[in-house]
Amino acid sequence: MAEVIVVTTNTGYPRKCCPALIGSESREAFLDTERVxxxxxxxxxxxxxxxxxxxxxxxxxxxxxxxxxxxxxxSDTKAGPVRVLVTGGSGMLGKAIEHVVMNEGLKRExxxxxxxxxxxxxxxxxxxxxxxxKKHHPTHVIHLAAKVGGLxxxxxxxxxxxxDNLRINDxxxxxxxxxxxxxxxxxxxxxxxxxxxxxxxxxTMIHNGLPHDSNFGYSHAKRLIDIQNRGYFEQYxxxxxxxIPTNVFGPHDNFNIDKAHVMSALIGKTYKAxxxxxxxxxxxxxxxxxxxxxxxxxxxxxxWVLREYDEIQPIILSVGEEDExxxxxxxxxxxxxxxxxxxxxYDTSLSDGQLRKTTSIAKLRRYRPDFTFTPVKEGIKMTxxxxxxxxxxxxx
Length: 396
Ligand code: NAP
Ligand code: GFB
Fold this sequence. Notes:
It comes from Sparus aurata. The protein has 13 helices and 16 strands.
């Protein structure tokens, strides 16, 4: 199926351009050269008023008076105030975005940031979703809200992960469309990739096979966001996109031993074991491997995506393949960070889940060769310190 590409001319009006015409050239190459292969002149031109079928494409060509530009948040700013609504703003990743926006100077003048929790609106409910959008009139949305949990919570409740997340995502995207939101950045997850796949996994592989059985509900709901984004783009030209973090951890995570993801569950367990003088029990063999990325790094990158990344297709936000570690490595780092000297046991009767889901960050590196990730050991130490300091208010 032909991919439709939107470019913006100096008129500011986005136009669809048929890829049959620009052949195998990528959009970046087109923008670099400011010249579409196949046009009739050597001058930089842009195709307008294209009439494309699957095999043919007729376009009217116009000279570019100034370089083609992809719509950016700056140009939106000129049109009026920017109000960024963050769904799931009270969760780990929402708090990380709040931290980098408010404390690291990423907030720009004239921008308003609104961080929602489920208390502001249950986004499974369309009426409540509409009401909260009506109240805040966002121009941009970072959509993080989701029913979220660790491996064992998914295995217990796959159907609810499917239905809650389907409803939340459809309500948010539909309401964003209805209320004229300029850009939505939604959050997928690396667990949505096919289970039987070649490594490293990249962004093009999402729909190439079934996800791991353990989280089939959540994975299918999240995959559909990518399909919805494509639909909103092809039908309305909306710039709704998505990001794919790998395993995220950090302050404000859910540290509940039964429901949490592995990093926060093991921090909670190890701290409790240290207080009580008991062994720590790790679920499974410890052999599974994961790419752990600190929430603040993901937060910084999501703000960059909101401002600068113009593709509809998702982008993986993660530490590199070389930083993949085993669960056993993670436990040892947690024990060191919490100064836990007791016994570490493994309950091998429990599932290891997906053994690996190694992703490639080649695409991210093309855009952000400069971005430095926090080393996992440093992130674990920071998260353990936060947990100990906030034990009374943390989610346990
Ligand atoms: P989290 O800490 O559990 O936060 C979830 C957020 O969603 C909370 O703000 C929660 O509000 C909100 N929420 C849940 N159900 C809702 C509902 N029905 N209506 C409105 N809001 C609702 O999760 P997180 O780890 O920050 O995850 C954020 C996003 O990142 C999710 O989309 C998740 O799929 C994605 N992600 C996470 C990871 C990871 O390892 N954690 C990895 C990849 C992708 P309350 O605080 O009021 O409950
Ligand atoms: O973070 P996690 O629960 O989920 O990690 P996934 C599961 C891995 O950690 C398995 C091991 O290999 C478990 O055997 N593990 C060891 C533990 N001890 C524990 C423990 O106490 N609790 C937990 N939870 N695991 C998730 C998806 O998959 O990937 C989520 O289910 C999310 O939805 C996330 O998308 C990124 O990494 O297997």
